[in-house]
Design brief:
This protein is α/β, with parallel strands linked by helices and 331 residues long. Helices cover 35% and strands 15% of the residues. The chain has twelve helices and seven strands. The relative contact order is 0.16.
Length: 331
């Protein structure tokens, strides 16, 4: 998925610097506390002893529950075929997020909105009737989220829809399996506030990738939550928003206090914070905070900027990613 703050292009940079700091990571417990689409956790899933994955958003929990939590192979081909061949349904997505229903919103073509509804309802029916396991439930939900995202009529995020169907949104949705890595480890997946969870977990490597600015993920990806939850509510305004979580890491007045508390309470030997040069916390703020709890170092790299809004003017196509490193003395 094209995701705000995705570390997909930075995985080798992260891995190299984590290994340079920690040494052998194969015996380590690795925690991805702000996991998003689980890109980093997936990368470390087969490289470490155990991954702890967390994100407060439900769509993220679904993706992480599949990609990190699922470890054992099961048969899925027949049910994927069945889901792809279902007759279309005028369900919640079509009624509220497609033009043909009269909603005034065009997040999906009419056909794709109806397909999403049909598939989502069938997955829930299977779960209620105990025709599939919990593991399979999250596998099929993750498959639907990613497949729906590929045909969404947006400029990468769901803060707004496009007036005309773009080329990729005109394609018919095909449910593709969200294949996960098989292993023998016992990983953990949570959907909690990071500052609440931190006192309940412990390990060796804590990787932090919190929001950098005021953009709330719950608002930017509200429709993924709606597909995942498939609950009954009245969408608000032109964009059809739902009530969403508001992160303290997106508030200038709250972020540093919450960050300090997180670092203080973390029971991990090594902490790595991904942040960029345009974040709410300054480099000096981060350095001063982390240095209170151990030995602090910093490495940086330049990479391509994520552009969710093509109309916005940027001073450069590149941005600087900072990897703040702490060897904690009181883990």
């Amino acid at each position: 998925m094209n995701y705000i703050g995705s570390k997909y292009k930075l995985l080798s940079f992260l891995y190299q610097n984590i290994c340079n700091t920690v040494g052998d990571v194969e015996s380590c417990v690795f925690c991805d506390l702000f996991a998003g689409t689980s890109v980093v956790g997936r990368y470390f899933k087969t490289k470490t002893k155990k991954v702890i994955s967390n994100d407060i958003e439900y769509y993220s929990y679904v993706l992480n529950r599949n990609y990190i939590g699922n470890c054992k192979e099961f048969l899925y081909e027949a049910k994927i075929k069945e889901l792809n061949e279902l007759p279309k349904v005028d369900g919640f997505i079509y009624q509220n997020y497609c033009l043909g229903s009269g909603s005034g919103r065009q997040y999906f073509s009419d056909e794709n909105g109806q397909k999403i509804d049909a598939i989502r309802l069938k997955i829930e029916e299977w779960m209620i009737n105990k025709e599939i396991s919990d593991d399979a439930y999250y596998f099929f939900l993750a498959s639907l989220l990613e497949s729906a995202d590929r045909v969404a009529n947006t400029a990468s995020v769901y803060g707004a829809f496009l007036k005309k169907l773009k080329k990729s949104a005109q394609k018919t949705l095909i449910l593709e399996p969200a294949l996960f890595q098989i292993d023998q480890h016992n990983h953990e997946v949570y959907q909690e506030d990071a500052n609440s969870l931190i006192s309940k977990i412990q390990g060796d490597i804590l990787y932090l990738d919190p929001p950098y600015n005021e953009r709330q993920y719950g608002a930017n990806y509200h429709l993924l939550n709606t597909i995942a939850l498939y609950d009954n509510f009245t969408p608000k305004g032109k964009t059809g928003l739902r009530d969403y979580n508001r992160s303290a890491y997106c508030k200038k007045s709250d972020v540093l206090r919450n960050f300090d508390k997180l670092i203080k309470e973390a029971r991990f030997s090594y902490i790595f914070l991904s942040y960029n040069n345009e974040g709410l916390m300054s480099d000096e703020d981060i350095k001063n905070t982390m240095s209170k709890y151990g030995c602090y170092t910093l490495v940086t790299t330049n990479y391509q900027r994520f552009k969710a809004d093509s109309s916005r003017e940027y001073t450069s196509d590149k941005t600087t990613e900072y990897l703040h490193i702490l060897k904690k003395t009181n883990a």
